[in-house]
Amino acid sequence: MSTSFRRKATAVTFAVLALTLAGGGIAIAQPSAKAPQAANQPTARGTDTQPPVTAESARMAKAALKSGAATTLVATTAFTVVNSNGTKARGTGTVLKYGPGEYEVQFGYTVSAGAFLATISRSDSCCIPPAGEISVAPRLSTPNAVFIQTRNSAGTPSDRGFTLLTHTP
Question: Please, what is the average pLDDT of the chain?
Answer without folding.
Answer: 79
